[in-house]
Amino acid sequence: MLHLRVICPPERTGAVRDVLLTEPGVTHITVQPGTAVQPPGDLIEADVTREAADQLLAALRHLDVPRCGGITLETIDTTLSDAADAAEQAVPGDPADAVIWEELITRTGEEARLTVTFQVFLAIACVLAAIGAITDSPVTVVGAMVLGPEFGALAAVAVGLVLRRGDLIRRGGVALAVGFPTAMIITALATVAFDATGLLPAAALDQMDQVRFIYSVGPFSFIIALLAGAAGMLALTSARSAILVGVFISVTTVPAAAFTSVALVEQRFDDAWQAALQLVVNILGIVVAAVVVLMVSPRARAWRGSGKWFVTG
């Protein structure tokens, strides 16, 4: 279940309370008049099932609570309550399958920001993948896959396309368009340094039997990307974030970008083209699959209000 905290002016407390009471998926409702200091107002708390959260948030937005107060939603790890069990049973569906669109928008929006941390992680992942390719070490390449932060940006683009949120598309697109080229330039410089210090023998790239999948584009490349994109978006929408690790290992976005830089420095242009194609195929496959998953997810309608898109369940 989820814990809901609402701060609102006293004149809206009755309406908020009525919304909570009429929702069968809400329980443990408490009202503390005059408790909130900044912003001033009443504090209302309740526990909400995941299946009811999206519709409830839409109703609170309709009351204009975010503008005059605030809404906070947190995950509850453990709940021992017959009332909570009854609330879970009163709402159709399974909590793991519920999509909380506001949560998804916030999460993907944050993870798609082009920050220094995002760029550093992506650059380290690419250099690590380059070393894995040079040393023919699949373990190192897999480590680079897990380290790469690019799925958040790809997910933001997918969410933006489905909800027609240009801000999410731009944020994710900028993170990818700037992040990958910058990481590839850093990887190219690292490759030059490896050449200069003798860490990259001339024949090293001829002995990549274990990691040849990085630049070997085939019919399964797009299929794997589709499956990974679908699994990744399902993990984001169903609160099964642990599955994302498997998604990162499945796709070769970071290794393909890294090897493109290595191959260009070593003037292996055919290999560089294949690796670049692998990168594009993976990115397109992930986004396409994520969009399809979101389009078939439970959602009734989207409407535009206060300059943003909101969704009801």
UniProtKB/TrEMBL annotation:
<dbReference type="InterPro" id="IPR005240">
    <property type="entry name" value="DUF389"/>
</dbReference>
<feature type="transmembrane region" description="Helical">
    <location>
        <begin position="214"/>
        <end position="236"/>
    </location>
</feature>
<keyword id="KW-0812">Transmembrane</keyword>
<feature type="transmembrane region" description="Helical">
    <location>
        <begin position="243"/>
        <end position="264"/>
    </location>
</feature>
<feature type="transmembrane region" description="Helical">
    <location>
        <begin position="276"/>
        <end position="296"/>
    </location>
</feature>
<keyword id="KW-1133">Transmembrane helix</keyword>
<feature type="transmembrane region" description="Helical">
    <location>
        <begin position="174"/>
        <end position="194"/>
    </location>
</feature>
<protein>
    <submittedName>
        <fullName>DUF389 domain-containing protein</fullName>
    </submittedName>
</protein>
<keyword id="KW-0472">Membrane</keyword>
<feature type="transmembrane region" description="Helical">
    <location>
        <begin position="141"/>
        <end position="162"/>
    </location>
</feature>
<dbReference type="Pfam" id="PF04087">
    <property type="entry name" value="DUF389"/>
</dbReference>
<feature type="transmembrane region" description="Helical">
    <location>
        <begin position="114"/>
        <end position="135"/>
    </location>
</feature>
